[in-house]
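re: that chain from earlier
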Amino acid sequence: MVDDRHAEQELPPLDTLAARLEHLFDKIRPTPDELSDSDEPGRKYTNKEIADKINEAATDTGVTISAAYIGELRRGVASDPRTSHVRALAAAFGVNSGYFVDDAAARRIQDQITLLSELRRMDVKQVALRQVLADNGLSATDTQLIEQMVARLRAVAEGAGTRTTSAASDDRR
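^ sequence. v structure.
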């Protein structure tokens, strides 16, 4: 349990709309479908791209927004957007609109974004293992030890596979 509190402390505070919006820009990346061939994979969204996403949906939502206004929201210059803008921003990033107004929802979504970022960086199996171990009450230290053991076993198995393949090819000579 101490480890859970420690993990929460590592997450940045989301005490303002600007901080919450900036967190989304920092953590959520354009999908491969949204990138052009010349774009760098993993780059951040621009204000214009988010505004374009919102404006493209305007025929359904009736909401439009400018890139400049999104920039003002990110900097905290504008801090009281219309509800329709909050909903549109949330939809553009694929999060629940409660993220912007409810502290518990913001924390939950922040945790989910962190998990998704970890899934992108790591092997999904390793993340699943961590979750299973945490669900069974193992500490972060115990979990790390088990991950190291699994990695070592994998390396030994791969080494044995390489030696077996090498030995087999030597036998054929």
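DSSP finds nine helices and no strands in the chain.
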